[in-house]
Amino acid sequence: MTDGPLLKVEDLRVYFDTEDGVVHAVDGVSYSVDTGKTLGIVGESGSGKTVSSLTTLGLTRLQGATVTGRIHFEGRDLVGLPDRELRRLRGNDIAMIFQDPLSSLHPFYKVGHQLVEAIRTHRNVSKSAARKRAIDLLELVGIPDPQRRADEYPHEFSGGMRQRAMIAMALSNEPKLLIADEPTTALDVTVQAQILALLQDLQDRLGMAIIIITHDLGVVAEITDEICVMYSGRIVERASTDQIFDAPEHPYTWGLLKSIPRLDRPRNEDLVPIAGRPPSLIMRPSGCFFHPRCPYVQKRHRTVDPELAPVPDDSHHQVACLLDSSVRRKIWNGLQAGRDPTSLRELAGPGLPSRAPAVAAPIASGTRPGGLRAP
Amino acid sequence: MLRYIIRRLLWVIVLLIIVSMVTFVIFYAFPSADPAVLRAGRSPSPALIAHIRHTLGLDQPIYVQYWRYLENIILHFNFGYSYQFSLPVTKLIFQRLPATISLTVGAVVVWLLVGLPVGMISAIRRRTVLDRATMTATLVAISAPVYWLGLMSLLLVSNDIGVVHIFDGAGTYTGLTADPGRWFGSLILPWLVLATAFAAFYARLLRSNLIETMSEDYIRTARAKGLPEREVILRHGVRSAITPIVTVLGIDIGTLLGGAVLTEYVFNIPGVGRLAYEGIINADLPVIQGTVLFGAFFIVIANLIVDVAYAFLDPRVRY
Amino acid sequence: MGGTLHVITAEAWEHLDPGASYFQIDYLVEYATQSPLYMFTPTSPTKPVPLLASGQPTVSPDGKTVTVHIKSGWKFSPPVNRTVTSKDVAFAFERMYNANVVNGYAAGYFPIVGAKTAPGDRPIPGISTPNNTTIVFHLTKPFAGTMVKALTLPGTSAVPANYAPLAKADKSSPSTWDSNPPSQVFTGPYMIKSYSAGRSMTLVRNPNWSRSLDGVRPAYADTIVWSAGNDPTVAARQTLASSNLLMADTPPSPVLQTAYQSHKKQLSVAPLGIYYAALNTQVPPFNNINLRKAVIAMQNRNAYLLDRGGKLVGHVATGFIYPEVPGFAQAGGNAGGGQDFVSHPGGDKTVACKYMKLAGYPNCKYTGKYGQYGSVLIVGSNASPGPQEMQTVQSGLNALGFKTTIKAVPQQTMYSKFCGYVKAHITVCPTAGWIEDFPDPYAALFIPFSGQAIVPINNSNWPLLNDPKVNAALNTDAGITNQAARLKAFAQVNKMIVNDAPAIPEVWSDNALLEGTKVKGVLDPWNDDWNLAFSATH
Fold first, then answer.
1. Which of A35, B310, C104, C106 gives B44 a disulfide partner, CB atoms 3.0 to 4.6 angstroms apart?
2. What is the side-by-side strand order in the sheet with C428-434?
3. Is it the case that chain C and chain A have 3 or more CB pairs lying under 8 Å apart?
């Protein structure tokens, strides 16, 4: 193992050539995660957060993606790695769990069998040894009576139990990095918290790095160390979790924060969805990609593409926004005070002739609308 | 499960009774020809016709005729006598079942061996030239009438009337027990001809199922596990995609056991299908009735087997 | 001499019990495995040759008694093995009248005193067997002239009397004697060794048959292997491509065309029978004889020949005795009797209008009444060339102003539910045809045209012609034993029938048959098919 972060993604770009045009799913993304740490990647569906992690596992290759940039994992660049070697990494050093555990488990195979398969793919152990380990793993993730449960089919499990089984499967080979893609979206509120607690507990015990991908900032508030906010294939803000919640700098992050209910805010405070829809990844907007939806848009935002750059007094806090830092902080303070974004618009400048915002769409990444949830 | 099977078997009986009633009404109440007349020839004496009508029970009201028919089947397993062959229908059917089974089983093997790999490769190599060419070919194969295909195959590659003498031609069928080698040789062309459309259909079916399956979340999981792509496709993809095909296969086998009429006809294979055909052209009502009932029996039993098998194939299904 | 003869057919056998057999394909087997009293042979197609009989029959002057002597020493095949006696012949006749056996022609051709179609076998009072080689038939009417011809039918083949398995089989209704042909008893050169219904049959030599005693059938082949139930196109092509196949039914016309063009040596043609369009003489409008004549005159009968395949398949018919039937020449040959309404095969409006005028339609357009269908109902086979023939008849009728309706049904249905069902009152049946049971004018004319032959169902007198003069003449002439006088008399009956205009004579049809390059098939012209006991392979 070399020094430096466990996973370091640099200038990752993933393009898909389709009949309609080139889809810029991921467009120059850089992030890293250290052993024992948790990174949150937050964004609406179509922001490229899932594609970037699938690319880490090499799974976008099969769909004919063009991948450039570098993905350093333990010093090796995964982008150029042959399929065979990449496959040895998958499920072994890097494991992944998915949003909907029911559809992510094979309906025709017993849960135990699916775990055994995961174990034996990477370890040359007997079936019975693998089965014993599978049962241990089920116990580790808190499934009662694992001996019996191992012989049940996924449809016989409850939603939370299924996600626990998925986690157990991901842990089969003691991965160094666990990527959890919307791990709680499909689950009930109380179960969500249990699963997040489980992930944190497992991290404490096993010391792996975790990347949590979610559209819901509330989910990641408690367990991440650092958060990347993605929009339209790019990272628009990257900071420690505390900074994202206390001093967010990007209007999109503000929107995300305002659209989640929080226990520390008055109950009667309105949840404010972000107006408009995520832009097309084929015909992307000019200038700042967020400008069509940004309440504080200025004329030059339509032509100038902002770079991800550190904020003046915190080199670890990066943001891609053309507004002046001082202006951003004033607006955030106003929003914190409960003011409406439209009333804060003049703080940014003369702005643009007002246009009716597009229909407000709930932000969601999965099958369930992003509704009420407790952080 | 046992209760389910018993319940289904009772339904099979009810269904067969309904089928027998419908065919009885169609062929006896509105016959295309008077069986007594057919038996007697073109200028019989009226006394003879009356005697035959009486013997065949045709002078009774239709419900009495039907009741006797049913009674004979249930009590004596007697499906009546063929007017044409002067033999019990059951004997005729059992005599011809081996040929039909030989034809069906061989064709099933051929079309699975051809159709499934083709479908799989097409699905994996989706949108390639290979895939497009295969899918066009399957469309042609599905649309080709089996009689035409049979005739063409004979005119091209049979060793009597073919342009190139390769395979045994029509009318060479020999029983398996009589001569296994000739049995096999005589069935090669019929198997290929009968299997063509099915292979094409199964290839298309598996292809579309597999394409759909390969976009399932659990396939992504399998890949994320680090399984080799081969195993992802075979153990996870095909395993799911093939399940609906088993259903279709069961019905197809049931249908073919009822007789692959055109293939049997063009290759002169003495099967149940040709028996049914001969029954129809000669208005041999007991034969028509018997073959229809046997066909229906095979289909409903195949259906039952498929439904039971489904419970084993898809653990989510329980009865 | 020797070798195996391979026969191939699309059709399969129906009834191989000699007492029940009544079908062209079955006859091929019967004349090879059984021995009727007499036989029409390829070399004697119009005069019966004694087979089991030792000589020509003796007929009493009143034509009501027929005496036949049979050869002594003729033996049944194994397992019976015993000598055939006149009692076995008598038993064959008893069986034909046993309703369980289901014989279709006995009552028509063997009017023996006291014979009655009924279930079970019983002695027939009108048959006596004074000794083991003599059998005497006493007839109810002077019918000997016809009966001696009918003694060639397979039902006259001796069957072993007092043979337990046969007696048992005949107790069932219908008799099960033909369920398992290899278990039957044979008197011909061959025995059925194996049989699979609708599929295959093997004939082998009958060890008890004596060529010298037979004196008629050469029986060249040692074995005859027959494959039935073949696709006709495939079978015909297989025959053309083969050296050793003999196809015993009619090839489909595309293959026939090929054969005419490039395999002429493998093609044999025999006259088959007659096709005609029956006009119902008992319901309007064709209960008017002049309308019938007008319709016949108007018809383009050449079109019927074209519908069936042109000159390859026969001639335009002018009467109801056709080329293979004795009496054809006496009836005028191809030209026919010279009646003006049949002398213009292309159709003649002038003649047609003459008869329309006689019928009371001076404008040559029919304006009168119709029967229950409100128009002329034409019913025919839906299989080619049925639809074409229906259109041909329709266009002729329309030209004379008749309203017409066409109904196409399967051939079997056409006979059993429409044209052969008297109460259906079908006006025109253009796809009817007749093949005589044996080569004699009585067999060609009686059933199709005698009023006495009309039966309510399965009627074969499709025009429902009931002309007392024709009926009487048929009855009288049936008894004529002198062949020359007989043929002359029946030519006269033919003329009477043509004059009654009961049907539009369409085609005297030929039957083409195919054989492999090294087969020498020999035709039985009267059965329009091969005779297997005369055919050989090289």
1. C104
2. C314-316, C503-514, C267-279, C428-434, C376-381, C404-409
3. no
